[in-house]
Write a structure and sequence with these properties.
Distance between the termini: 28 Å
CATH architecture of the largest domain: 2-Layer Sandwich
CATH class of the largest domain: Alpha Beta
InterPro entries: CID8-like_RRM1 (IPR034823), CID8-like_RRM2 (IPR034825), Nucleotide-bd_a/b_plait_sf (IPR012677), RBD_domain_sf (IPR035979), RRM_dom (IPR000504)
Order of helices and strands: HHEHEEHEEEHEHEEHEEE
Largest sheet: 4 strands, antiparallel
CATH superfamily of the largest domain: RRM (RNA recognition motif) domain
GO molecular function, one term: mRNA binding
Number of domains: 2
GO cellular component, one term: nucleus
Strand order of the largest sheet: 2-3-1-6
Pfam families: RRM_1 (PF00076)
Structural class: alpha+beta
CATH topology of the largest domain: Alpha-Beta Plaits
Oligomer: single chain
Protein name: RRM domain-containing protein
Length: 218
């Protein structure tokens, strides 16, 4: 497992205990330790990006996202201290893949991922390479319509989880493809309209697991 996953568990547990003022202070601290990286080649993985920035300081989180307006992607890289983030700004213009990346101070913190959802095995890590995370899905669109959309544009879908609630106006989905190449193609679907909304597609950090059943105690 990549080193930058290590802080998430403590971060999640601690955040629940913070009041509003303390949480804002912690969030502001995270922002100061985070840089925004743009113009990232589609072939670059989070591990490769984290490897580049590890020369600036300890990387504690790295999140690559799809950009609906470009074939290139963007990312947020969080360091253990502000010095690492300041040093990282010097990497602007560095060639990574086929493009020079741009590095700016971040205006937002990285939202943590619940560690229990992260891949637990090599098989699940392989599943993640075939999976995308899709947001801003029109509530009127059915699961079958989401599947048909991605299959017609990208390739065979082997598993799909469509999630939503009564609070948010749109829904999210995790889409697992039969082939990793299909997941890469799916990233280019960001900005396409599904129903009445332009969707956002990013690489998934979590596999689509079967519905959870409670384990029996031994």
């Amino acid at each position: 497992m990549v080193v930058f996953y290590q802080r998430r568990n403590n971060y999640n547990q601690g955040r629940r205990k913070l009041n509003g003022k303390a949480f804002r202070a912690q969030r502001d601290d995270s922002i100061k330790r985070t840089v925004y990286v743009s113009d990232i080649d589609q072939t670059i993985t989070e591990e490769q990006l984290a490897g580049l920035f590890s020369n600036c300081g300890q990387v504690v989180d790295c999140r690559v996202c799809g950009d609906p307006h470009s074939v290139l992607r963007f990312a947020f890289v969080e360091f253990a201290d502000e010095e690492g983030a300041r040093t990282a700004l010097n990497l602007g213009g560095t060639m990574l893949g086929f493009y020079p990346v741009r590095v700016l101070p971040s205006k937002t913190a990285i939202l943590p991922v619940n560690p229990t959802f992260l891949p637990r095995s090599e098989d699940e890590r392989e599943m993640c390479t075939r999976t995308v995370y899709c947001t801003n899905i029109d509530k009127k669109v059915s699961q079958a319509e989401v599947k048909n959309f991605f299959e017609s544009a990208c390739g065979e879908v082997t598993r799909l989880r469509l999630l939503g609630d009564n609070v948010h106006s749109t829904r999210i989905a995790f889409v697992e493809f039969a082939m990793a190449e299909s997941a890469i193609v799916a990233l280019n679907c960001s900005g396409m309209v599904l129903g009445t909304q332009p969707i956002r597609v990013s690489p998934s950090k979590t596999p689509v697991r079967p519905r959870v059943t409670r384990p029996t105690s031994r």
